[in-house]
Amino acid sequence: MSQQLRLSERNLLFYAALLHDIGKLPQRATGFQQVHELLSARLAHRIFAPFLSEEQLQQLLTLIESHHQRTQEILALRPGMGVAGTDGTRLNAH
């Protein structure tokens, strides 16, 4: 049986930030249509399940799964505000 770790909130946030887009790799490699946030959470679950309490694991997975949610909320509240695209153009919410 593996030993459980107790991570600080700062470390939970650090690991969520580190792993939040890791699901893009299998998504792009396989063309799998599931959103990368869910794939990232699935991979993080496989990595951290043996080491974290269920509470901390769920906190980590929630951070990873919802990492685009706040951006979408801000864009919905501020029509006309855009996000810079990878080619330098601006993508508008409305």
Please give a structural write-up.
The chain is mainly alpha-helical and 94 residues long. It has a domain at 9-69. 55% of the residues lie in helices and 6% in strands. It has five helices and two strands, in the order αααααββ. The chain has helices at residues 9-19, 24-30, 36-48, 54-65, 69-77, and strands at 82-84, 90-92. α1 (9-19) crosses α4, α2 packs across α3 and α3 (36-48) runs antiparallel to α4 (54-65). The radius of gyration is 16 Å and the shape is elongated. Residues 81-94 have low confidence and may be disordered.
Label this structure with key terms.
94 residues, mainly alpha, two-stranded antiparallel sheet, 5 helices, 2 strands, 55% helix, disordered C terminus
Which residue ranges are poorly predicted, with pLDDT under 50 across at least 5 consecutive positions? 81-94
The span between the termini is 51 Å
Number of helices: 5
Kindly state the percentage of residues in helix.
55-70%
Radius of gyration, rounded? 16 Å
Write the layout of secondary structure elements.
Layout: H1 9-19, H2 24-30, H3 36-48, H4 54-65, H5 69-77, E1 82-84, E2 90-92
Antiparallel strand pairs: 1-2
Question: In a nutshell, what does this entry contain?
Answer:
This protein has 94 residues and is mostly helical. The protein contains five helices and two strands.
